[in-house]
Structure formats: C-alpha cells, structure tokens
Amino acid sequence: MLKLNPVFKDYIWGGEKLRTLYHKESELSVIAESWELSTHKDGRCTIAEGPCAGASLADFIKEKDCLGKKAVGQDELPILIKLIDAKDNLSVQVHPDDDYALQNEGDFGKTEMWYILEAEKGAQLIYGFKEDITKEQFKSYIEKNTLTDVLNVVDVVPGDVFFINPGTMHAIGKGIMIAEIQQSSNVTYRVYDYGRVGADDRPRELHIDKALQVTSLKKAEDAKTKYTLKTSNGYQRGNVASCKYFNVDLLDIYDHAELIADEETFHSLLIVEGEARVYSGQDELKVSKGDSIFIPARYGAYKVQGSCKLILSTL
Q1: Catalytic site includes residue 202
Q2: pTM beyond 0.90, yes or no
Q3: Angstrom distances, CA of residue 175 to CA of 86, 103, 117, 123, 227
Q4: pLDDT tens-place string over residues 238-279
Q5: Is residue 36 within 8 Å of 81, Cβ to Cβ?
Q6: Start-to-end Cα distance in the chain
Q7: pLDDT tens digits, residue range 50-87?
Q8: 192 and 279 share one domain
Q9: CATH number at residue 285
Q10: Do 182 and 80 form a contact (C-beta atoms < 8 A)?
Q11: What domain count does the chain have?
Q12: Residue 137: inside a domain, yes or no?
C-alpha cells in the first residue's frame, strides 16, 4: 500500500481550507484543487513514503501491473480523485462524453461524482436546468448573458452526493469543499464565468460552440443521490456511486473495517475525517484527514483501525 503526494492547482476561485483543514503543504498562495489520485498528464501523483518514495505513481503502476482485471489492457489509472475548495463560485461548465472528447480533444470524456465535505451556511451549487430548453434558447441565454436565470440551483450540506453525467451543466458554488471522483480527464467546456479575468488580466476563455454540441438540455431530475449506510462489524458502509467507470463507497469507521483488494481492482482510500492505521501482515501506514492511499489489486486482506470516515474508490 502506498501513501501518495498530491498535485496542487491554484485556480483563481480557490481558498485556504485545503491547507488549514486538510493539512496540505504547498508553496502556492492559493490551493484550489488537490489531485489525490492521478496519473493524468496534467498532474501526476508521486509516492510519499517507503522504498519507492518520490517515484511516480504512473511508473509504479506500469511496472507492477497492479490495476486489476477490470482495467485489463490499461497501464494508467482510469480514474482521477480530487479535493476541491471553492472559496468563490466555479465557472458554469459542462463535460463531453468519451466519443466527443476523444475525437475533438484527444482525451477521455468526464463522468464524475461529488461528495460534499464542507458547506458554509447557504451554500449552493448548479446542477442542470430548471426546465427543458431548446438549443436555440440555450444559445440565446448565453448571448444575452441570462443563462443563470434558467439554471437549477441546489442547496447543499455536508454528506450530500451528486452524480454528474457528461452533458450536465454544473458549477460548484462558493463556500463548498468536495471530494470528486471522475474519469481520468481534464476536458472542461466553460460556458459562463461571472465576467472574471485570469492571471493575464483578460477574460477567461469560454467554449460556447463546443458546449452547444454536448450539453443536455433536459430538466434536471433528482440532483442529489440518495444513499444509506449499513452497519457491519466496527463500521458503517454505503455505496454512493456506481457506473462503468468507477464504484464509490463511503465508510464511517468507529472501530475497524476489514477489507480485501482482490484481483479485480485496486483500492483508493481518501481519508476525509479522523485518523487511523491501515495495515496488513505486509506493512502499516498511519493516516489522517486529507491522506490518500493506493492499494494495488491482488494486495489481499487489510484492516483500517481507528475512528475515521473514508471514501473507498474502485473500478
């Protein structure tokens, strides 16, 4: 099992919570995103401890062939996991599916899910449209700068889960911190950005033509994912997202959880509350809030002992 060093991004809407609440250390003045599990070319994690400390996770995976049967034929992680701190509103944006992204961007599409970690009082996000609209109406709202009038705004609290299919218009609102599990992709089409400028003092680029081609214009239904936690020996567990790209469980551990990384898939553990020990007969790691652990496929049985809440992502 490997504790990972994240990759940091300093987008203009980011804040300080990743540093103050999740113990992230970076020379960046603002930490907007922390890429906790990634072999994507735009941000590759490294190994934090042990004999392989400092090595690239991507190189380790290629050498060890440790993604499992569900990722047969792949030598890079098919998912990417982030912590995101929105001090200000993110742009209103949309992601394409695989077919469009591969043809037009040379990258995969982006299916993703969000788990709300922190939410200030009154925090909201955008998820789809209030009602069905036509492509012509969509274009008109953009041109008239009235797009926000037809977007579906959702109140959020910690523990909420959202599943975002490609084509869903969305935006994280200010005062929200999330854990995001997504396809390994960095393709985003920005549609509305509140008139902000970038580091070059110019308005940030919009991608209207591409967004018009990929956005679903149907009314948003059931924005929040319903889930329950079932009690096992020493912990509670519930599935919060399952699709062909990833499977995500939430574990609330009050004593211990015994888990198995079999030949089918690797395990990714993202600690979002508390602290614990993760160990087996092979090795042991101390983990706390903000830590990310990669456990190779075929690793076998291991135990998480302590009081913590974690997100378990697999294929």
Answers
A1: no
A2: yes
A3: 6, 36, 11, 6, 24
A4: 999 999 999 999 999 999 999 999 999 999 999 999 999 999
A5: yes
A6: 17
A7: 999 999 999 999 999 999 999 998 989 999 999 999 99
A8: no
A9: 2.60.120.10
A10: yes
A11: 2
A12: yes
